[in-house]
Amino acid sequence: MISKKIVATFRPLRPLIVRFAAGRKLIKYLKFKLWQLEVHFKTGKDAAIAGLDVHQMLWVDPERIKYQCVLSKYDTLGERGQILGGNWDKNKVLFSDLDVYRAFKARFINNEPWENTDFYHRVTAEIASGNTKWGCTTLDEFNRRLEQLEALYTEIKENGYKSQQSLFPDDPYRGEDEISIRIGRDGELLFEDGRHRLTIAKLLKIEKVPVKVTVRHREWVNFRMEILKYAEAHNGKVYQPLLHPDLETIPSHYGPERYNLIRENLDLEKGTLLDIGAHWGYFCHRFEDDGFDCYAVESDLKAAYFLEMLKKAENKQFTVINQSIFNYTDKTEFDIVLALNIFHHFLKTKETYIQLKTLLQRLRMKMMFFQAHEFNSVQMQNAYRDFSADEFVEFILRHSELDESRYLGKTSDGRRLYKLYKSVDNVST
Hints:
Layout: H1 2-10, H2 14-17, H3 21-49, E1 58-60, E2 67-69, E3 82-84, E4 92-94, H4 99-109, H5 118-128, H6 139-159, H7 164-167, H8 172-176, E5 179-183, E6 189-193, H9 195-203, E7 209-217, H10 218-232, H11 257-264, E8 271-276, H12 282-289, E9 292-297, H13 301-313, E10 319-321, E11 333-340, H14 350-362, E12 364-371, H15 389-399, E13 404-410, E14 416-421, H16 424-428
Parallel strand pairs: 2-6, 3-7, 5-7, 8-9, 8-11, 9-10, 11-12
Antiparallel strand pairs: 1-7, 2-4, 5-6, 12-14, 13-14
Helix pairs in contact: 1-3, 4-9
């Protein structure tokens, strides 16, 4: 390793340098910079091609990390930024099955003594056999370590979770010692190191914790590169926000404003939702998290590919329908229908115009959120029909069971968003 060779070169001077606090600090800093340099040499080309910042800190919901990656050895700093193929991501165990997680839950949630846990018996047996665990070589040292963990639990409970970078700003290595994860071939977040902190975060239901990625699977990186290639062909952006922690920095044309506007005007907490022209499934991801049973209709093959891959990466359960909405008749009744920047495509020919009217007559729904296109735009030249936003709303009301509308506002591209719904009299009948 490059850093070890350089450190060895200066080893004769170390006794003199460490006599001074500034010298000790300098050595730490130089070793850290050499480590960064080595990571760059080992990962620079692959990381650059994949658009990765291998030192980036991701903020992750602890509940997303469900499995531990089982490895023969862990080297969170030595393997930082690696992109590896193979089946390493298949060898995993449930994090909640780890004896440390069960012990912490017994102690902090159920107020049981440590001595009643398998974790305590395992560690004390290993120490008794002459092994060192977390720097502890005696039972007294281990019991003091448990007291420190109790204090850590109380500190996080009372003051919130803090990153190691914020806790140790003057110690670069400690600042890198966040919870470490690996990312599997499908985008799954696999725990690697930092089990005490992750366990506490899970038990306290912390919303987000900082993590560092040690290794990414080659197949996941290839998929990430496909997304970047798509973005490059679309002015450097994807259409809607990507919610996976390893993708969320990729810019998008739309932000969360449409979801926020819809959510603010939604008086349901659960139900069925149909997204017509779902693209990569952003709204189904968001509304499934909110408790809705979602259906994503996307007829474009390329968009459906990304839709399926991102659904798998996020471990979502919504239904993907890769066909024209006009041909989908398996289910016609929904609580909510999303028609965002999609219906104007059906105005371009007489055939699809008629199919749109038939679709509106067939759908049974409580409400629709409709986003209109820009009237008289270039894309609508030679279209069979073209409507202004208000005319389009009237067209939908005329051909569906909905009979009321409310203008909600404009989104960042200037397009108007409406809520269409049944009046009280209509609902009662």
